[in-house]
Amino acid sequence: MVLTSPAPRRLSAHRHPLNYRLHSVSCLGHEAHLSLCSFEFYRGNATGVCKGGMPAVVGCVPGPLFATGSAQKKKRRPQQVQKRLRLKGGARPGEGRVEVLRNNEWGTVCDDRWNLVSAGVVCRELGFGSAKEALTGARMGQGMGPIHMNEVQCAGSEKSLWSCPHKNITKEGCKHSEDAGVRCNIPSMGYENTIRIVGGRTAFEGRVEVKHAGRWGTVCSTGWSTTEAMVACRQLGLGYAMHAVTVGGWMAGMSAPGAGLAAG
Fold this sequence. Notes:
single chain; mainly beta; elongated
């Protein structure tokens, strides 16, 4: 999966008061959910306080496990892209031994310096929300063939495991008894119950709303970027953010703050 910037989509608007809950959201990009980012709460019923901004909006790219359904049927089928990452040997979806493709040959990853940050990149690349465990010592079984990567050191915001700094390996440097594995959260850790996206054309895009003190409210889009959108999509268990725009960038005919999204 990759971050893309598709052409803006036109959605119709209808006006209704928006109850803002969060503003000044700022993420590093590797957080598992928005509550780990820095942000500020609005006090009381704040309907017109998002100065200079509109509701935050995201479009997510779900992994294959979550991309089924009528929402995807209307979309043009994307070009077939050869996958370069897979999980093998796991008993459940979202867990297994990490295998990568190099020169048309699948191989494993050595567990030297393997940690939850790198495991998180694997899980997101495969379309899961976040990583639950980084497994070492071939806990998901020993692979066969070559070992392609060693000492993987991801920063946490990479789109692919191949984008992480790593070392190539020789047969003497690592054995299959050191194969790395992951367990991914499906879709995440329960935090998906405190966030939702509404008003989009599909279940994977729309205005971001968060639940606080039992009530749903909107997120102010001032300062909202793809980094924050990536965390929101991850919290929803929907892989990567496809875009992060303010409502004004998506909608035609919006003339006043407080307008909301509606499919049209």
